[in-house]
Structures are given as C-alpha cells and as structure tokens.
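lol forgot to send this yesterday, sorry. struct tokens for the thing we talked abt
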C-alpha cells in the first residue's frame, strides 16, 4: 500500500485515530479514521514508529502466545484397571471403575468441589432428620463463605455471615430449630 500523503513510498506506519464528534443535533458519535504513511511523511508529521526493538519484542510475544495456544497438555494415562481415559470420562460423564476416583483425583476434586461444595460424601446420617441435615449443610456453607469473605477482606459480609452462624450453630448443638430473625 502506498503512502496516503506522498503516494510514492510504501506505507510502513499505520495511524488509527479515534475521536468523538458532535452532530448538529447534539448527539455524540465516535469516529475512527485510519491513515497509512511512509516513514518520511510520518517523521514530517512528527509521528514516530515503534523502535525496532519494541517491534521485535511484540512479534516475539505474539509468536510465543500463538505457540502456547497450540500446545496440548500431556495426555493423562488411562486407568490401569479399566482402561478409562480422562477424555472418555469427560465425554461420557461417568467413571469406569472405583479405582478411577483415585487415578483421576487431581481432575475430579475441583469438579466435585464445584458441584457439591465438598470433596467427600458421607451420605445421610442415621437418626438425623432432613431439616437438621440441611442446617448442618448450611452451617458448612456459611463457614466456607465466612472464610472467603475474611480472605477477601469483605468484613461487612463476614460480620453478617458470623451473625447468621451464631444464630444457626447453637440450634444444631441443642437440637432446637434456629431462632427467627436475621
């Protein structure tokens, strides 16, 4: 492409100008103009191209990002007992055998944590009614939220969670329903 100013030299500098224009009605619109200049005309207009080292660094960073996008992580070996691969588990959503829980543990733990807010399952507790089980689950969730709020320094949220825990937790210990309020 030739320079838009002199129309003689090859354009090596591209300038994108983004501005704001106001219409006669008073509405503001964004305008974008693109100019292609040769290095001589850019110098005359006091526009400097990037130094060659910066251009090379940007090109190097872009090529590294491109290569990183193409690289695939090393394939997880299949389960030695049933032959299930991680890819098969992800496509089917089911494991092949009980040993898969240990074999794919590092991949399953975050998934289980997201799905169930826990990485272990205790089942129902004998002799505990469902309402109490729900309160126990709620206390566990509140404690996790409280820890996260403290870690994130969200002290007002942490105080609210602490108060709710103080209201629910004693009821669990005594077996009584939690006090109304909030």
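and heres what i got for the seq, position by position
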């Amino acid at each position: 492409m030739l320079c838009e100013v002199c129309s003689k030299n090859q354009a090596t500098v591209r300038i994108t100008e983004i501005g704001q224009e106001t219409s006669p009605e008073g509405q503001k619109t964004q305008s974008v103009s693109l100019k292609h200049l040769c290095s001589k005309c850019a110098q005359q207009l006091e526009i400097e191209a990037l130094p060659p080292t910066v251009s090379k660094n940007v090109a190097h960073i872009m090529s590294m990002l491109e290569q990183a996008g193409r690289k695939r992580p090393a394939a997880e070996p299949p389960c030695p007992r049933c032959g299930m691969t991680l890819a098969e588990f992800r496509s089917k959503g089911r494991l092949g055998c009980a040993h898969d829980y240990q074999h794919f543990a590092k991949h399953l733990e975050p998934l289980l944590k997201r799905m169930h807010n826990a990485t272990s399952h205790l089942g129902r507790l004998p002799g505990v009614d469902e309402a109490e089980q729900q309160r126990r689950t709620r206390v566990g969730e509140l404690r996790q939220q409280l820890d996260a709020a403290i870690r994130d320094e969200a002290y007002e949220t942490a105080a609210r969670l602490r108060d709710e825990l103080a209201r629910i937790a004693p009821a669990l210990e005594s077996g009584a329903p939690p006090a109304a309020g909030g």
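The chain has a mean pLDDT of 77. anyway ping me if u want another try
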